[in-house]
Each structure stands twice: as structure tokens, then as C-alpha cells.
Amino acid sequence: MGRSAIALAVTLIVAGCGGSSSSTDTSRVEPSVTVTSSPTFERSVIVATNSVLQSFVKLLVGDSAEVLTVIPDGKDPHDFEPSARDISVLNSADLVVQNGLDFEHGLEDSIRAAREGGVTLWTLTDNVTLIGDDPHVFTDPLTMSGAVDSLAAAVARLDGVTVDAAAARSQLEAAGTAARGAIAALGSGKCRLVTDHDALAYFAARFGCTVTGVVVPSFSSSAEASPRDLEAVRKAAGNARAIFMEEGAPGAVVGQVAEELGIDLVELRIHALPADGSYTGYVAALAGSIAGALS
To answer: Domains of the chain (ranges plus CATH)?
Structure first.
């Protein structure tokens, strides 16, 4: 048994965990499961940095590995800072799966230290076709499909882990087909997106949408808009139905622009899983939210 047999006196955020919930939002996942004893794992441990990557890993390995995550479901990875418990989880993994391209900025030092300590690291953005330096590849299931073989090879080296790459690709293809259908139902040229920051380029390119304006032209939701940015997005959003922003991102400036233009402000759960905790469900929810707002 590998590193996963090391006892952990930590709080583990396990598959199917979620952020804070409200009484009116039934789409949220139930709160995280807390382990307060010192468990050992009979299966190999894969730690994905966030819940969306966790769901992608589980699409490949099912229940043949213990798939954990560090960043809580719904938490913006751009500004997450790890606790001592989170660092312990990373150091005790058999494999760490990260997004890359500065997406998990606050985890970079901890991941580097874990790798130097002997933990194997796999990076999503090293294994897909990128759009510039945009890290939000997970919004497109077919771009994610391009990473399946590489990730499958990495996890297949772990003790007792089984992978069905063909089945995973089939599910990703089906998710893409369903999302394309939801967007196509809007009509040709109707999927015009104005966003709080650059987060939907992969989704837009795959499913025939056009990003017509970005409030903050940055890949990070923690960046701030300049007066020039705001003036540009006011012009771009003149005929828009809505402005889309990441759930949990700073929304005062975006809300101000939406109010000025008299259009809806729609929160997208870009960093959160739906109730079923699956990656395919995540894609369906994202496409459904966008299509619903533009209908």
C-alpha cells in the first residue's frame, strides 16, 4: 500500500461534498463529511484540487480509488488559501490532480512542496488544447475528453485502481451533445455572453456562443475592473439579455453595470457541482443556466 496508508488526523472533504447551503436552493450539495479520527485508506488516494476536477477523476476511476478534494465545493479556487489540514491531505496523496495555469494560486506552494516530498502530480492544462492561457478548460467536456488518456495512464499506476477510459469519453461526448442541443435551441446567434471575467471561452467556442463583453478582462475573478473596462462592457452589453457572473465572486461592480443597463444578473455555479455530484451533471447545469437566462 502506498502513501494512502499513512494515518491522517485531519478533516477530509470527500466526494459529494458541498459549500454552504440555503433553504431555497435545492441544487446545492449537502455539507462536507468530517473525519475526526485518524483513518487509513485501503484504496489509493487521489486528491483533486477542487470539486469539479474531483468529479472528472471519479468519472474515470469510479469507486476504485479514494477521490478527495481540498477546495470546498462552490469556493472560488482563485483566492483559496489552504489550512494545515489541507496541506496534510496533499502530502498524503498517492496522486494530486490540479488544474494549472495559476488557477489554484493559493495552493501552488503547497502542491510544489508535496511534489518535492514524493507525491505524483498531474496537471490538466498540460494535457489539453488551450485557448491562450485560459485555465477554465473544465467548462467544455470535449476539451476535457482530450485529457482522458493522460489521466488514465497516471491513475493506472496506482495500486488497485481501475480505469474505463472509453466509457468516460462516451459520457463526455454525451454531455457535450446535450449541452450543444440546449444552446442550439436558443436559435442561431442567440447565445451572446457578457461575463464578469474571462471564464466561458471554452464553453462558448465549443457550443456556438459569442462572448461579446467582459467586465474584468482577466482569467481571475479577484481582478478588478478599470473605468475603461466598464465603459467597454457597457457598450458591448447594450443588446445583451443578461450578465453572467461566477457564484461567490465580488458582484458589486457587475451588479451596478447590470442595473444601469436594465438587464438580468445571472450567477453561474462554475466552481460547484449539482446535487448528483457528477461532472456530466455539472456540464448540464451550466448549459441549462445559460440557456435558461437567454431564452
So the answer is: 3-171 (3.40.50.1980), 180-294 (3.40.50.1980)
